[in-house]
Specification:
The complex is a heterodimer of chains A (81) and B (398). Chain A has 81 residues and is mainly α. Helix content of chain A is 73%, strand content 0%. Chain A is built from three helices and no strands. In chain A, helix 1 crosses helix 2, helix 1 crosses helix 3 and helix 2 crosses helix 3. The longest helix of chain A is centred in the N-terminal third of the chain and has 25 residues. Chain A is globular. Chain A starts with 7 loop residues before the first helix and ends in a 5-residue tail after the last helix. With 398 residues, chain B is mostly helical. Chain B is built from 18 helices and no strands. Chain B is globular, with a radius of gyration of 25 Å. Classes of the chains: A mainly alpha (81), B mainly alpha (398). At the A-B interface, helix 1, helix 2 and helix 3 of A face helix 1, helix 2, helix 5, helix 7 and helix 8 of B.
Chain lengths: 81, 398
């Protein structure tokens, strides 16, 4: 199986990515879509988790995450099939 | 990212959960580690195992990882055009591995993505082999994983984009257009200008298939004028498509300018086959414009180059353009000789026998000196249509 090759510095970088994007996603979910804080928190987290697998193909991480949150809200409200 | 007071307020107000950060970091680290390891292990295992035994690798523990699945995905994707049977074998292995992943091996969202991408690649492999029914089945399977995951809309749109492409091949044009419209919305929301462009090109291709050349060209021109940067390869393809539409619209100056640009760009990219295809488009333009001598002179070396590159069908299509030019020049005997040669080439290459039948009919007409430019065009269109409808019958009075 894969041997861990990630260093503490990598770990800090991943944490920094999360902390960088999370507040803006929260604000969008709460202010623009009127989600409760707990729903917004879960949605923003789901979007960030989804971005990990897609990361090599993402050009603009902020736009991608915003799109994931918008899609999450609209699909949960039944706007998308 | 702004760093003003409102940003500081936002950061203070919306602090992430420590457990969420830790989970994100843990998953990201694991996937990153697996990506490093996956490439090596997959390459070694595939090299060491005969292809007809790859199914036995499905339960190999070293393949049951995101990194290994991504590597298999890359190998399949890189082979769709060059070696589609190899791509299919790799994609089949990837779907088996993804289906065998233990429950809870990954975060549910990641597990969904892994399975959906494996099935998507299998669908694309079938598409590259023109096995459309199986391609649709595989892509539908990929879609089914993603339907209920709200934040995976981009992945769903990626799968549906491929489904839209397959639908075009099976003449399900309305469904294809609807899917492309939905995909565009999602890609736009995610700031994915690359796939947005691909959707636009797919829409244009569909309109071309429907012979709605003006609308297709409008789409291509809008894409070209977009402020977003376009990859060099897509740019070359767009110029070629605009050129080909312009020929059909009898807008020859626009056609020539765009085809020349496309040829130049493909040359710069070092893509000689694509350059040849654009050159063939230029030859077609000369025929349609009525400059038959120029067309014949231009197309002869293009046809030889297609043959040198083992592309007899493209060479045959090129020959039909030359035959059209020869008829315009009043040289039916030369046209007849060339048509007979193409029949031999098609036969020895084992191409669709229906194409040979159509060419035989054309040759008879040339021999009887009753072949017209329209008939040559019809035979050419018929042979091209066999790519998507290999069972279509040739109608003599098309």
């Amino acid at each position: 199986m894969a041997q861990p090759i990630t260093t503490n510095r990598d770990e800090q970088q991943f944490e920094a990515i999360y902390e960088l994007h999370f507040p803006a996603l929260m604000e969008m979910a709460v202010v623009r879509f009127s989600l409760s804080e707990s729903d917004a928190r879960q949605l923003a987290h789901d979007a960030l988790i989804a971005s990990i697998h897609s990361a090599p193909r993402i050009v603009d991480m902020r736009s991608w995450l915003v799109g994931a949150v918008i899609s999450g809200v609209t699909r949960s409200r039944g706007s998308h099939s | 990212m702004t760093k003003g007071p409102s940003d500081r307020f936002m950061r203070l107000r919306y602090r992430p959960d420590k457990s969420h950060i830790a989970q994100f970091s843990r998953i990201a680290q694991r996937i990153r580690d697996e990506r490093e390891f996956g490439a090596t292990v997959v390459d070694q295992l595939l090299r060491a195992t005969p292809r007809d035994q790859w199914s036995t690798l499905a339960e190999h523990p070293d393949l049951a990882s995101c990194g290994a699945l991504e590597r298999l995905g890359k190998l399949a994707t890189g082979s769709f055009a060059k070696d589609p049977t190899y791509a299919l074998a790799v994609a089949e292995l990837a779907t088996s591995v993804s289906e065998g992943l233990p429950d809870h091996a990954y975060h549910p969202s990641v597990a969904i993505q892994l399975r959906a991408y494996a099935w998507k690649d299998l669908g694309k492999a079938y598409l590259s082999l023109s096995r459309f029914v199986e391609a649709i089945e595989a892509l539908k399977r990929a879609e089914s994983y993603l339907l209920n995951a709200g934040t995976l809309a981009h992945d769903l749109a990626t799968v549906r984009f491929n489904l839209a492409v397959v639908y075009q091949e099976t003449e399900r044009y309305t469904e294809s257009l609807e899917l492309l419209a939905d995909c565009k919305t999602v890609f736009r929301e995610h700031g994915d200008t690359r796939l947005l462009l691909f959707c636009g090109i797919a829409e244009g291709v569909l309109l071309q298939r429907l012979r709605r050349y003006r609308e297709a060209r409008e789409i291509y021109l809008l894409l070209l004028a977009s402020a977003k940067p376009i990859e060099a390869e897509s740019l070359a393809a767009l110029h070629k498509a605009i050129g080909l539409c312009s020929i059909e619209l009898a807008d020859y100056p626009e056609a020539e300018s765009n085809l020349q640009t496309s040829i130049q760009r493909y040359r710069e990219l070092g893509q000689p086959i694509e350059e040849l295809k654009a050159q063939a488009g230029l030859g077609r333009l000369y025929v349609r414009r009525g400059t038959a001598r120029e067309a014949v002179l231009h197309l002869r070396p293009i046809r030889r180059a297609f043959l040198t590159n083992a592309m007899p069908e493209e060479a045959g299509i090129c020959a039909l353009e030359i035959i059209e030019g020869l008829l315009m020049l009043g040289k039916p005997s030369e046209a007849e000789t060339l048509a007979r040669l193409v029949i031999r080439e098609f036969t020895s290459a084992g191409l669709n026998t229906r194409a040979v039948t159509a060419l035989g009919y054309l040759t008879e007409a040339l021999t009887a000196r009753r072949a017209t430019v329209d008939l040559v065009g019809n035979v050419r269109e018929y042979i091209l249509s066999l790519r998507s409808e290999p069972e279509r019958e040739f109608t003599r009075h098309v």
